[in-house]
Design brief:
This protein is α/β, with parallel strands linked by helices. The chain contains seven helices and 15 strands. It has helices at residues 26-38, 58-70, 90-105, 143-146, 162-170, 185-192, 227-232, and strands at 10-11, 17-20, 50-54, 109-110, 118-120, 126-130, 133-136, 153-159, 174-175, 177-181, 199-202, 214-215, 217-218, 221-222, 224-225. The strands form five sheets. Strands 4-7-8-3-2-10-11 form a seven-stranded mixed beta sheet, with helices on both faces. Strands 1-14 form a two-stranded antiparallel ribbon. Helix 1 packs across helix 2 (58-70). The longest helix has 16 residues, at 90-105. The protein starts with 9 loop residues before the first strand and ends in a 12-residue tail after the last helix.
């Protein structure tokens, strides 16, 4: 009997953080951060799921995020002017609802609509629709911060020191990716190399490039793909030893 073994690339989730620095253009960056979180109703492994905003701009930036979020239309994603579609299945819908229930039970402040619309879209159509929702500064150990929601509800929290936001970003079992938003490239790169994640995107939502290796740290996966290193993972290496 011949036993065959196969290489395995396993991609798991990523409770990815977005770090917003104090020097950003809020009118440009806030909508980009919102879309990075809520695109495809947050059902993307590299979606931003924790938002850290520098305390000096926290209130103003949060207001910009809320304003843009309230303008997003929920409904049939095949319709041209719809921004946010439904949750993919009933099991995930129930899971996402558990985050809303936890926030309500603990009295966390909903920065967007105080009564998020569920089970129907902007026109009343039934489905697994959920209004994109922002929670204002829940505790660090809250369910919404520590677990990957994979749906349209996100925590936004202030930060003050680089070392603090780096530690909070790394305080998770996952390590798929992160975003840093800043005009100061030196600061952004300094933060980036200290994050325990496979990919860091500066001034961009996470969007893997086929030319660059894509992998996760910690529990965010085994192995990787794309780029030269990804191609090599499909190859069998052979060493030929010649002695004279």
């Amino acid at each position: 009997m011949v036993y065959l073994t196969r290489r395995l690339n396993q991609r798991r989730g990523g409770n990815d953080a977005a770090i917003v620095c104090p020097d950003v253009d809020m009118k440009v960056t806030a909508p980009a951060v919102v879309l990075a979180a809520f695109k495809n109703s947050g059902q993307i492994c590299v979606a931003s799921k924790r938002i850290y905003v520098h305390q000096s701009i926290y209130k103003a930036f949060l207001a910009e995020m809320v304003s843009f979020t309230k303008g997003l239309k929920v409904g049939n994603p095949l319709v041209a002017d719809v921004d946010i579609g439904p949750i993919q299945n009933s099991m995930q819908y129930v899971k996402v609802q558990s985050f809303f229930a936890d926030c309500k039970e603990n009295g966390y402040r909903i920065a967007t609509d105080a009564h998020p619309r569920i089970l129907n879209d902007s026109t009343g159509r039934k489905g697994y629709f959920i209004t994109p929702t922002i929670i204002d500064n829940p505790p660090n150990r809250s369910k919404l911060v520590t677990e990957e929601q994979f749906g349209p509800i996100i925590p936004v929290q202030p930060w003050s020191e680089e070392s603090e936001v780096i530690a909070r970003t790394n305080d998770t079992n996952m390590g798929l990716g992160a975003c840093i938003w800043s005009r100061d490239m030196e600061m952004a790169e300094r933060i980036a190399i200290q994050l325990q994640v496979g990919s860091v995107y500066i001034n961009s939502p996470l969007r893997p490039d086929w030319r660059v290796y894509f992998s996760g740290h910690k529990e965010s996966g085994v192995g990787g793909e794309r780029g030269l290193q990804g191609l090599l993972s499909y190859c069998n290496a052979q060493a030929v030893h010649i002695y004279k």
